[in-house]
Automatic annotation (TrEMBL):
Transmembrane parts of this sequence: 12-31, 76-96, 108-125, 131-149, 156-173, 185-216, 228-249, 283-303, 310-330, 350-368, 380-398, 534-556
Protein name according to UniProt: Cell division protein
Highest taxon, organism lineage: Bacteria
Organism from which the protein derives: Lactobacillus amylovorus subsp. animalium
Signal sequence segment: none
Gene Ontology BP annotations: cell division
């Protein structure tokens, strides 16, 4: 203990204490009222994590088939939507016991992760600690992180992790000796793949220009391609469960896409100070006036000092380009006419701020470090202005949190059961999972009609049946007074196997995969299971072993550093 340098320890600790304090201010209205905020995506993700939690609790693991969540219909969700992160959230949910506790804890975790990764990026480019902390606090109050706090928008986790992706990109330009640290790049990309696939695609887009510049700087350097190949191969091993699930399902099923939205309406736009509370902060892609003014000042500076610093110029120009594409002024109407699939694949252009904001925050920090840190009056003016932007963003976040925590947005029933230790009660009086995402659909698939069909055949009917789970099988039982045909509130895929009253089902299914069976008078039963391809078990073990090896290697490195 005498050899520990407490000054260095405090140098790390104080910044996170500040982040905890700021996060408390951000979510204070929710803490004060004590409510589970239920935004647009809250119950979709709650159902995912509840399913994972119950699998862990009951030791009934089913990687593909949802036996506990989504009306116990057997839908495949988690396997295609951040499976590793889903089980981690399920474990957290079991530990904290209630939905309210879970939401508060994850609010702190996403803010600490976002601020911590941004501070790590800023200090990598040698920006001093106080300024790094200030910009990191600003970062968690703009973009999709506040949207996660209020409406569980999952891109928030992508934004929280994105500074580390950008760090890998900056390293490609800044580090002359080792532009690609393949272990670092492998881990960063593997984690984001296990969290959110769409954020993964954005991470790839973020890295492309940095890699091109890297190739231009290090011409004919084979080591770059060797290190990149190592990173790709390692990522494939660490995420074999993810791409293996996509391979298994998409190779033999036609899966429903997410709902389509008009891209012209989902771009970033200027936030106002009056009117509907959705215009405050960054909910639904609004940008604050002072934040926009700060970005404009950064752009003017880069134009006047274009050749001063390659990293600053690159991140600023690229960040502005992405922000422009994400705005309502980009011709998204033309894009969706030429490429109709973007309406469902991308849905909301403002999601691109997940990569625009890390770029721009880094550029602002570099501008201050390179130009104003030695000149007192310019230094203080720049810090003061960033402080004003920070105050604007925090106030905006608090106001938005207050709105989403209010009684007219969250029912009293949800407020009450969010503190109940029976985690299933929160779904009793809430219709959720109405979207037809990832259902195995017929050729005449029409998204709007499929949603309606799922609502009629599953959501409204599932309470008429008794559900049981035996190992990885889902069992339905029901009693009727007469024999007739009925559509079961179950979802089938090409790998699904259904046994109805002791006989294998090979009959007709409706357009979303609900089996149409002939029930008999009296007691009926149906057993649904999912046949996992043998090769997927091999891929799953590759993933598990790869993470174990990585963990052992990481602990060994940490041990060596601690010993020194």
């Amino acid at each position: 203990m005498k050899n520990i340098k407490w000054e260095k320890v405090w140098g790390v600790v104080w910044s996170y204490l500040v982040f905890i304090a700021v996060t408390t201010i951000m979510i204070w209205p929710q803490l004060k009222i004590g409510v589970f905020t239920s935004g647009a995506d809250a119950f979709f993700h709650s159902a995912r994590f509840y399913d994972a939690a119950m699998q862990i609790h009951n030791h009934n693991f089913s990687f593909f088939q949802s036996n506990y969540g989504f009306q116990q219909s057997g839908r495949v969700i988690n396997a295609l939507y951040g499976p590793g992160f889903a089980y981690l959230n399920g474990l957290i949910l079991l530990m904290v016991k209630t939905w309210f506790n879970y939401q508060i804890l994850t609010d702190y975790l996403i803010c600490l992760l976002g601020a911590g990764t941004m501070m790590c990026l800023l200090q990598y480019v040698e920006i001093n600690k106080p300024l790094s902390v200030l910009l990191s606090i600003l970062y968690i109050n703009i973009g999709m992180i506040p949207s996660y706090i209020n409406s569980h928008t999952f891109n928030g986790w992508g934004q929280a992790w994105m500074p580390l992706v950008l760090l890998c990109g900056v390293r490609m330009i800044k580090d002359k000796k080792k532009p690609i640290n393949w272990i670092q790049l492998m881990v960063v990309m593997s984690v984001i793949i296990q969290i959110h696939i769409l954020s993964t695609l954005m991470a790839v887009v973020l890295l492309i220009p940095f890699f091109i510049i890297c190739l231009c700087i290090h011409r004919n350097d084979k080591k770059i391609w060797i290190d990149l190949s190592k990173a790709i191969l390692g990522t494939i091993c660490l995420t074999a469960n993810v791409w293996g699930a996509y391979l298994a399902l998409y190779s033999s099923n036609r899966l429903a896409t997410p709902d389509a939205y008009d891209l012209r309406l989902g771009g970033v736009q200027l936030s106002g100070y009056k009117g509907y509370v959705g215009t405050y902060g960054t909910v639904s892609g609004h940008i604050l006036p002072l934040m926009l003014f700060l970005i404009i000042l950064q752009f003017i500076f880069i134009i006047r000092n274009f050749k001063q610093n390659l990293v600053n110029t690159t991140v600023t120009i690229y960040g502005l380009l992405i922000l422009g594409v994400a705005s309502i002024y980009f011709p998204w109407g033309v894009v969706q006419r030429i490429f109709p699939f973007t309406e469902s694949l991308f849905q909301f252009p403002y999601r691109l701020i997940v990569i625009a904001y890390p770029l721009l925050i880094l550029g602002i920090g570099l501008t201050i470090r390179l130009n104003f840190i030695q000149v007192n009056w310019e230094k203080y003016i720049s810090i003061l202005f960033i402080g004003l932007v920070l105050i604007e963003s925090i106030v905006s976040t608090v106001r938005t949190t207050r709105y989403f925590s209010s009684y007219h947005t969250v029912s009293t029933t949800v407020q009450r059961v969010s503190r109940d230790r029976d985690l299933s009660k929160i779904f009793d009086n809430k219709v959720y999972g109405r979207q037809s995402d990832y259902l195995s659909v017929s050729k005449d698939y029409v998204p709007g009609k499929m949603n309606t069909l799922y609502r009629k055949k599953v959501i409204k009917k599932h309470k008429n049946y008794k559900h049981f789970v035996d190992h990885n099988c889902l069992i339905l039982k029901w009693n009727v007074k007469s024999s007739k045909k009925v559509t079961l509130p179950l979802v089938m895929y090409s790998q699904s196997e259904l046994i109805v009253n002791g006989k294998h089902f090979n009959g007709k299914k409706n357009p979303i995969g609900n089996p149409i069976i002939s029930q008999r008078k009296g007691t009926n039963s149906a057993i649904l299971s999912f046949k996992i391809p043998l090769y997927f078990y091999a891929l799953l073990w590759i993933t598990i072993v790869s993470w174990v090896i990585l963990l052992i290697f990481g602990l060994y490195k940490v041990g060596l550093k601690f010993k020194k």
